[in-house]
Every structure is written in structure tokens, then in C-alpha cells.
Write a structure and sequence with these properties.
alpha/beta; eight-stranded parallel sheet; three-stranded antiparallel sheet; 17 helices; 14 strands; about 40% helix; binds acetyl coenzyme *A; binds 3-methyl-2-oxobutanoic acid; binds magnesium ion
Amino acid sequence: MANRQQPSPMPIHKYGRYEQVDIPDRTWPGKRITAAPRWLSTDLRDGNQSLIDPMSPERKRRMFDQLVKMGYKEIEVGFPASGQTDFDFVRSIIEEEGAIPDDVTISVLTQAREDLIERTVESLKGARRATVHLYNATAPVFRRVVFRASRDDIKQIAVDGTRLVMEYAGKLLGPETEFGYQYSPEIFTDTELDFALEVCEAVMDVWQPGPDREIILNLPATVERSTPSTHADRFEWMHRNLSRREYVCLSAHPHNDRGTAVAAAELALMAGADRVEGCLFGQGERTGNVDLVTLGMNLFSQGVDPQIDFSDIDEIRRTWEYCNQMEVHPRHPYVGDLVYTSFSGSHQDAIKKGFDAMEADAAARGVTVDDIEWAVPYLPIDPKDVGRSYEAVIRVNSQSGKGGIAYVLKNDHKLDLPRRMQIEFSRIIQAKTDAEGGEITPKDIWAVFQDEYLPNPDNPWGRIQVKTGQSTTDTDGVDTLTVEATVDGRDTVLTGSGNGPISAFFDALHALGIDVRLLDYQEHTMSEGASAQAASYIECAIDGQVLWGIGIDANTTRASLKAVVSAVNRAAR
Ligand SMILES: CC(=O)SCCNC(=O)CCNC(=O)[C@H](O)C(C)(C)COP(=O)(O)OP(=O)(O)OC[C@H]1O[C@@H](n2cnc3c(N)ncnc32)[C@H](O)[C@@H]1OP(=O)(O)O
Ligand SMILES: CC(C)C(=O)C(=O)O
Ligand SMILES: [Mg+2]
């Protein structure tokens, strides 16, 4: 197979490759995620620190309440030593009775510097459950460029930091606080694995994890620099090699620099991680942290409970947009304006068939569509489950086909057009979208449909308007029909006979010189109850043309006569 790509002028010599992990008996590729991990939202820390205008206390509070409402039990609420705003925010939620539910742990981040650690621990006084999260970068470039220090010096920063956290927690926090500890070897993804392990072990030697004394070891992809598979290999390696593993909560913190943070988080879970840190809608430094909404919804779409409530995704999004002063992209998974919308014909056709099949399957089993497995093509989840309506599912433009248009008519107007009529009407819409470009709204589709097939009260047209019709059947089964109508503007009484009302009407129309032959006829009720309307569809050959007509009436005979008139009027239009 030929590949005609040519070398580019890009300066590729500037970049090295990431290290692969020698782990030939890796197990993660065969694993599945069958339960939700522990989640930590870092919207108020990693998310907040990357905003042009960090959240005001009021915005922070809105975001915090939203996260609690959704069900997050671990929330990183800030970097209290960064300044008064974060410190005061942490104090405000601790001091306000009931602001932090008893089962929610708040967490705060600090560098491994004594003055910062003291201030950080101080911010947590009186908290019910709190974790201090300490980090220092461990990767070679950071050792050389940022800290200008050896491996041992870097390990010592982590060890000393851990000891200081414990000392200040002992001094400043009372017994009312269930105190936890988290350590992150920042830039884990570029750190030599043996060194990352060495630092984590040294930190554990200080913290002494054991029964009822876990340690959270968070291995951040501070800058995402490898494929998700290598990220997973690194997690599996740490998972296998860490001592005291049963007391370690192994946590992933993927960033999205290569656009694969979600995959990296999922593969890390398959490789042994217990917990994921991220932000709603992928907010965070540079390209963002891993998107907690996508991760949670990915689980949901596989029938795994994310243990987070996404049922009103638009409310979550509105709060997020207000707090971050940013907008969610229209293509953002599960939430963007366009993600449950299909414009293209073959997609719309499949979606319509999918909805129809769901209804039929549910009816056959005597249950509702919500009781059976979701199986609508092109829609990975039921939009209703996140509070979206079906209205936007199908939108029509020049890329659309009959299925989409038929879906709009069925969904909005309860008209289930026969297949050949769908084709006929879609050509009419196609001509309009080709001529005018852009999207045609459901309202416009309906206006075109009414004008084309139904007596349009705003713009009446056509040779014939039926007023009343009466048929009688004699003992031989011959129907005689009398129709009061306006023909070419004059009131007229038409009569005819045949083996049913439709053929009797055709007979009457022959008297006007109209040659009609029936090709197909279908009808259905549009609603239930006393005021139920019926829709009749008729396909006729009229003076050499093949055309559809539709009639809507509470009486099925009148509906069929109107359908004939619709087709006849169209033939003469
Ligand atoms: C990957 C991440 O997201 S990490 C979190 C990053 N978030 C933030 O930084 C937001 C909050 N930070 C801040 O407000 C400020 O950085 C402060 C108040 C904490 C500290 O400010 P400053 O005292 O001015 O220090 P600055 O931020 O410039 O830090 C640089 C110094 O800290 C050292 N340092 C950086 N990280 C760490 C660490 N984790 N532990 C110990 N020392 C560290 C650097 O080597 C440098 O030291 P040097 O001055 O001796 O060269
Ligand atoms: C502080 C750490 C966990 C971090 O945000 C990162 O490394 O990305
Ligand atoms: Mg981060």
C-alpha cells in the first residue's frame, strides 16, 4: 500500500521519546473496570490555579456545593498557603455548620516548605475529615533545572515535608479531625520508575501506613508525555512493586497534553489504580486535568454506576461555566450542545429506526422503553438520562435524509409517514436546503409539510376543498358517496359509487375529468381517547403522476377522503 506523505519541515530533532516499560507480562490489557474508583475533584485547586481570573470566594462556594451535590466525597479545596483567598475559603467551609457533609473529606495542597506546611495545616483546624497533600517534583529535568539537586536531596525534600506535615498536624489539629496524608511525586511520568518507587517508599517509612492508616500515593502525569498504554505500564509496575500495597490508595492524576487523559485514567485503573483526580469538563492546567464527567459517564454508558449524579448535566454545566467563566465546547463528550444531535442522513435514518425498534421491543415485552437495554444507533446513551430532551437529536440540513425528516414529523406531530412518502417529502426539503443552505428547523419543516400536503388555512390552495362527505353501503357491499365540496371556487355536490368510500370518491372525481388510481393506502391513530385523530396516507397515480396525499380527521373515512383531495390538489398544483 503506498503512503504518499512527504517529510515535513517540522524540527523533530528537538524532541526525545518517552521511555517504555519493560513489563512483558503486563496484565492490564485484559482487565475491565467493573466498579467506580474513588474520585477526587481538584476543580477548586488544579482547576482554579489555571484560570485567568481565579474563582472568587462566592464562585468557589458555588462549585464546592455543586461537587458535594453530585456526590464527590473527596474534594481538593485549595492551596491555602498561596494567599488569603484560599486560606479564608477553607476556613469558611470548615466554620460553617453543615457546609461540609460528614462523609466528605477536604484536601489541601502544599509544597514541601515548612512555612507553607504550617499555614496549610493551620487552615484545617476543626475540620471533620481532612487530608494534606504534599508534592515535590522528582523528574530529572526538575532535579537539574528547578531544584539543582541530587536524587537524594529530592528524596529528602519529600521525607522532610512528610515529617513536617505530621508534626504540624500533631500540634495544630485536635482529635475531632480525622487526618489523612497524600504524597505526589510531581512529574511522575518523567521520573525513573525505580526513583519514584524509592521516594514513595521513603515517604511511607515516615508516615507508616498500616491498618486504619492509609496513605494516598498520587502518581501524576503532570505533563502528559506518553501513550496511555505506557502510563498504564507505569501504574502496573508501581502497583506490583510498592510495599504495604494494601494500605496504599494508588491514585492517578492525568493531565491532557496529548489529548488522551481519559484513556490514561481508564488504563491506569485497569493497571491497579484505586482513585482518580480530575476536574469537571477537563478544566485544569494547560490542556486540563482529566475530565471527571467523561470518565464517570463512560462508566455509566457501560452499565457501571459512577456513584456521581450526572442526571442534570446542563445544571452542572451552567454552574461550571459561571464558576470558571469559560464555556463548554459544543462537541464536549456527553454535555456539548451538539453531542446528541445528528445532521447526516444515514445517522438520522438509523436513529429513527433505533427509536422505533426500542418502542416495538418494549411493547412486545409489555414493559416501557426505560426497562430495556438502550440500543439506539449513534447515541451511546439515552440523552434523557442526563436531562436532555429528544428535540435536538435530529436536526436537518443539506446533509440530511428522509429518516431525519420523518423523525421530526413523528416526534413533533405524531405523523408516521410511509417510507415512499418519506422519500417524496425529503426531496422537497432537500430542494429547499440546497437552495437556501443552512439548517431547517422543525417549525419550518412543519410549515413546508402543511403547505405541501394539508389545507393550509393561512395560504389555501388547490382545486378541491371537501366540506362534508356521506357514504351509504347497500346490501351488495356497494358504497355510494355524496360529497359537498368547493371545486375551482364553486360549491358542488359530487357523487360516486364503488366497493369502498375511496373507490366511490375516485368515481366521483372521474366526473370532474380527474383520472385517479390507488397505489397504496396506510392509516394510523395519532393519539388515544375520545378526541383521537387519525392520519390517512394515500399514494395515487393521477393523470400519469405518482403522488402522496395525507388527511387528518377524527373520522377515518373523512381522513381518507381528505388524503385523496391532498394528492389530487398536489397533482394539479
Ligand atoms: C503541578 C502543580 O499543579 S503544583 C501546584 C502549583 N500551584 C501553585 O503553585 C499555586 C499556589 N502557589 C503560590 O501561590 C506560590 O507558588 C506560593 C505562595 C506557594 C510560593 O510562592 P514563592 O515563595 O514566591 O515561591 P515560588 O512559587 O516561586 O516557588 C519556587 C520555589 O519553591 C521551590 N519549590 C517548588 N515546588 C516545591 C515543592 N513542591 N516543594 C518544595 N519546594 C518547592 C522552588 O525550587 C523554588 O525555590 P527557590 O526559590 O529556592 O529557587
Ligand atoms: C500537585 C500535583 C499532583 C499536580 O497537580 C500535578 O502534578 O499535576
Ligand atoms: Mg495537576
